[in-house]
Amino acid sequence: MLKSSLFRLLYLLERDAFAVLEPAHRDRDLIRPSLVYMEAHYEENITIEQLADCCSLSKSYFMACFKRTTGISAVEHLIQLRIRAACLELNKTDRSISEIAADCGYNNLSNFNRQFKKCVGCSPANYRKAAKKQELP
User: Fold this and answer.
1) Phi, psi of 3 (to 5 degrees)
2) Number of H helices, E strands in the chain
3) Is the pLDDT score of 22 beyond 80?
4) What is the structure's pLDDT at 23?
5) Does the structure show a pLDDT above 70 at 18?
């Protein structure tokens, strides 16, 4: 239980670290439409081309600008959004992991499990178990 709590703490610290980054204003304004789009449509299949078009930038300039502004790629940001949404669902519902994965934009359960473990440090099932244990009085 201690190990899973530590993984959860590390995940929350990493997640919140991106919120305090202060990127250059010009680049932030350029990529803002893509951030809004990803937040609203993370469960859909999103391509770099769509995100670049949404910002009226070329694909290569968009990718460079996004990385310079956020410190991560647009794909990694999208993965983080999806995993964050999955964590919320795992905490508040008893729905199956495959249903949650599909609702968060993953068509492949093994890919979801791999990405989840990479981001959070444990499997979705272990994350859910640890969250349930923390709720006990």
Assistant:
1) -60, -45
2) 8, 0
3) no
4) 45
5) no
Other Cβ atoms closer than 10 A to 4: 18
Q: In angstroms, rounded to a whole number, what is the distance separating the alpha carbons of residues 44 and 16?
A: 24
* Cβ-contact 23, 69 below 8 angstroms: yes
Query: How far is the CA of 45 from the CAs of 7, 30, 52, 88, 92, in angstroms?
Result: 28, 22, 15, 20, 25
Q: What's at 70, amino acid-wise?
A: T
What one-letter code names the amino acid at 68? R
Question: Look-up: residue for tokens 């999208």?
Answer: 78
Give the span between the Cα atoms of 94 and 100, in whole angstroms.
Answer: 10
Report yes or no: 73 and 51 within 8 Å, Cβ to Cβ. no
Are 61 and 31 a contacting pair, CB within 8 Å?
A: no
Q: Single out the residue of 32, 79, 68 nearest to residue 51, CA to CA.
A: 32
- H or E stretch covering 82: helix 74-92
In sequence order, what E strands does the chain have?
none
C-alpha torsion sign, points 23, 45, 47, 121: positive
Side chain identity, residue 57 = L
